[in-house]
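Quick check before the chapter quiz. The format below is the same one you will see on the exam, so make sure you can read both the input and the output lines.
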Amino acid sequence: MSSDQKVVTEVEGRRLVISNLDKILYPEAGFTKSDVISYYLKIAPVLLPHLSGRPVTFFRCPDGVEGTSFFEKNLPTGAPSWVTGIEVPLRSGSGGETMIYPAVRDVATLVWAANLAVLELHVPLWRSTTPGEFGLFDQMVFDLDPGPPASAVECARVALLLVDALKDRGHTKVAVKTSGSKGLQLYVALDPSRPGDDVRTEARSVARKMERSSGDLVVSNMRRDLRAGKVLIDWSQNTPVKTTVAVYSLRARPWPTVSTPVTMSEVEGCAESGDPDDLRFLPADVLARVDQDGDLFAL
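Here is the expected output.
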């Protein structure tokens, strides 16, 4: 099949025109658009529930991970009529201005996005309940970002400390996933859901307390000159307008790594082994893990 050949297919009763299936999007790995679509088709049963009700920001790489890339928040022009959107405030305090984000509610929409070379899916910490308004937060996130030469190993050590700190505050529903890049992301389920400002205040308090108690390992200030060899606990993602990469999303890295949920035993294992590759997963790894363990991110 030539790289520019188009294929007409049907996904859950929706007609789709797929193109450039042989196009290599990850040159170092030889991973093609067909591989991207296949992964998202197979992971859809566990991925879609985490996207449900959340406006999705696309990260598109039409020429692959080594080419031009861009974030796309607006529902793309020319989207099929059956692709729906979510109306979201343009920004905090935008005075009623809104925009329409894509909603990824079904497998057909996921495949349509993958065909646009959407490699990454990013979502906020809230689900939409009223068009044109931010929702209440049902999650709180701590993004653990290592400052070289720190790595996922130091992130694992911080994650263990952070889980204990959160338990002391009464948060027992906690899940950890890899970012698919260098760090880890720790999520707290909030039930009932809470206002974003309230969640941000608590996240900042937790991060700063961690910095005071473990200053040799942790920093909560965003300044890059403070981060060498330490782990930034980024609490600032707890804002209605910000997003984090969705669980099970591919990343636009040299290899098609995946933002993958991990067990606390695996986090402990990485902290003890000192090998950051213990928490590095590719699509085949993730699909096998889901087959064996189901959704480890089901908070």
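If your answer matched, good. Residues 137-293 form a domain with the Alpha-Beta Plaits fold (CATH 3.30.70.3300).
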